[in-house]
Amino acid sequence: MAKPHEKLAESLAVLKALQDGRRRIFNSDELTRVHRERLLHNGFLRDVIKGWLMSTGPQAQQQDTTPCYASFWEFCFLYCNDRFGKDWFLSPEQSLLLHAEAPTIPPQVVVNSPKGTNNKIDLLFGTSLYDLKVKEMPAELDREKRPARVHCRGRPYPGAGSVLPARANRDAGRHGVRARRINRAGPAA
Predict the structure, then answer these.
(1) pTM
(2) Digit-coded pLDDT (tens) for 111-122
(3) Which residues are CB-neighbours of 38 under 8 A, at least 6 positions away?
């Protein structure tokens, strides 16, 4: 019979295989019940909401916000893709902040989708996700010419490895232009 540390090593190998793509958020279906419970018990995973897990370290305290905030946008992106498919976009305010590469964690993220239910989902540390039902996706989102997500230096979400979970502001997205930093010192002489 395998010893407890051998069983934990087996579960950690499964977790490492999931993390090889630099992922920190996982749907609970990606792990078997035995591995999931073993990793949760030993502090290598933490529940975000029912059915979604976050990778942490056993040294992280329960009140430690670092793993949660480091994984916040990844969770929003994966959760919304799983729940709404491609029919969702963030509120214009949050989209502009992300497009400007200001990935601060707001108290509430508003996700617009025809599949929304006007429901607030409480997340860790006082944050929440509100899925706002909209009649349809905006007409200006032409999926053939311009994807419904913002490109920001090739990362899928702040701090990760291609497309942000947000819709581009009208001009930047339409023309494929990235937001530029303003040189506050003035023009070069």
Answers:
(1) 0.70
(2) 999 999 999 999
(3) 7, 8, 11
